UniProtKB/TrEMBL annotation:
It catalyses: ATP + protein L-histidine = ADP + protein N-phospho-L-histidine. The keyword Repressor does not apply. Its EC number is 2.7.13.3. This is histidine kinase. InterPro entries: HATPase_C_sf, Sensor_HK_TwoCompSys, Sig_transdc_His_kin_sub3_dim/P. It holds the Pfam family HisKA_3. The chain crosses the membrane at residues 20-44, 56-74, 80-107, 157-178. Residues 211-275 form the Signal transduction histidine kinase subgroup 3 dimerisation and phosphoacceptor domain. CDD domains: HATPase_UhpB-NarQ-NarX-like (cd16917). Keywords: ATP-binding, Kinase, Membrane, Nucleotide-binding, Phosphoprotein, Transferase, Transmembrane, Transmembrane helix, Two-component regulatory system.
Length: 412
């Protein structure tokens, strides 16, 4: 969570560049007129018909004014530059306009230093007004508004210097207040947008959870009964065959596999419902692949296997489960499309080279005797894609090949 004391840099408006140009031109013209404040910088006319002329000192100050006001173009990126430039003009006695602009930029950039910057600027403006009221600096106001530079010591112009300073400080404070209000409004808008996105994400999560629960109910209602019936009939067939012979062995295998499938389904239903899942008979881990292959061999599936798994305990849970499920689905797919055909499984997994899974079965004319939904290979691709792996599946030289490569992921 961001601290409320963090610097807040207001968003740069589209018209910030033109506004800087306006400030530059207006401020330069204002300070050119304010050169009258500096004794010896301007030769004032004796009559209204005579022109105003700059002395050598005035010409040098005019060039300095132009140079220092250039800093207004970088007041957002380098606010201290404008503040220092304005301080130089105020110290010389020309005006404190650039000083106030620099102070405003510094307060916007570093709001936690508002008291320091504001107090310093107010003190500098107050000293400037005091100097105008008590010294030869300060002829600009009476000359501009009364065409009489010699009347600067009259009470009305002394009071005008302090009034002008107070009005300038109040205007600067108003600009800072409006800027801070706008920054708070922008932060409120950002927080509101963030909360809105969070609410949308929670709503989407609730919708997904409701869909997962619906799928879990459908799976349980549709499959649990059928698997229970298969297991029951397989048990009855095993009993009827007298418990011996090939028929009894096949019935026993069907019953055990149906029971294992029922337990797996219950575990998946529990995961979908985000509740405590019942432990499956064959957990989704690389260490259970040996039991999976043993069950298939016991069921009479001709298997030729090459399985090397190193440091399985170091694999991430996602990789560990994905390897098991991919091998399981690839073998199921091969058995379904090539029943009683010899199958080849190659599995090599280690932290250095990653995981390579390759299942090969011969192509049989006539296709599968078991109907398929086309989701097996899709599931393999999805699991591999979630791990940034690669999948190649297709026919090659009379065989159907599923070849999967997965990068290794360490357990966190």
């Amino acid at each position: 969570m961001a601290s409320s004391n963090a610097p807040v840099v207001p968003r740069r408006p589209r018209w910030a560049g033109p506004r800087a140009a306006v400030l530059f031109v207006g401020g330069m013209l204002f300070d050119t007129l304010a050169l009258v404040n500096v004794p010896g910088a301007v030769i004032l006319p004796a009559t209204d018909a005579d022109p105003v002329s700059l002395t050598d000192l005035g010409t040098g100050l005019f060039l300095l004014v132009i140079t220092l006001w250039v800093s207004v173009f970088w007041r957002r990126r380098l606010p201290l530059l404008s503040l220092i430039a304005g301080g130089v003009l105020a110290l010389i006695g020309i005006s404190y306009l650039l000083l106030l602009i620099g102070a405003i930029a510094c307060v916007r950039r570093w709001p936690t230093r508002m008291m320091l910057v504001g107090g310093s600027a107010a003190g500098a403006v107050g000293l400037f007004a005091l100097r105008e009221a008590t010294t030869a600096w300060g002829a600009a106001l009476p000359w501009l508004f009364a065409s009489d530079a010699g009347s600067q010591y009259e009470p009305v112009w002394i009071a005008a210097s302090f009034i002008w300073a107070a009005v300038s400080l109040a205007a600067a404070a108003g600009v800072v207040s409006v800027s801070r209000t706008r920054a708070r409004a922008e932060r409120s808008d950002q927080r509101a947008a963030s909360e809105h996105r969070r609410a949308d994400a929670l709503n989407e999560q609730m919708v997904r959870q409701a869909e997962r629960e619906r799928i879990a109910r459908d799976m349980h209602d549709a499959l649990a009964h059928r698997l229970s019936v298969v297991s029951l009939h397989a048990g009855a067939l095993e009993t009827a065959s007298g418990g011996g012979g090939d028929t009894a062995e096949m019935a026993r295998t069907v019953r055990e596999q149906a029971r294992a499938a029922l337990q797996d389904m219950r575990g998946l239903v529990g995961e979908l419902r985000s509740g405590p899942a019942q432990p499956a008979s064959a957990p989704a881990t690389m260490r259970a692949i040996g039991a999976l292959l043993a069950d298939l061999r016991a069921a009479g599936v001709p298997l030729t296997t090459y399985v090397v798994i190193e440091s399985a305990e170091r694999a991430s849970a996602m990789l560990d489960g994905a390897v098991y499920r991919i091998v399981q689905e690839a073998l199921t797919n091969a058995i379904k499309h090539a029943p009683s055909a010899p199958l080849d499984l190659f599995l090599h997994a280690d932290p250095v080279s990653g995981v390579r899974i390759r299942v090969v079965n011969p192509l049989r004319p006539g296709g599968s005797v078991v109907p398929g939904g086309g989701n097996g290979l899709l599931g393999i691709r999805e699991r591999a894609g979630a791990l940034d792996g690669e999948v190649w599946a297709g026919a090659h030289e009379g065989s159907f090949i599923v070849d999967v490569t997965l990068p290794w992921q360490e357990r966190g």
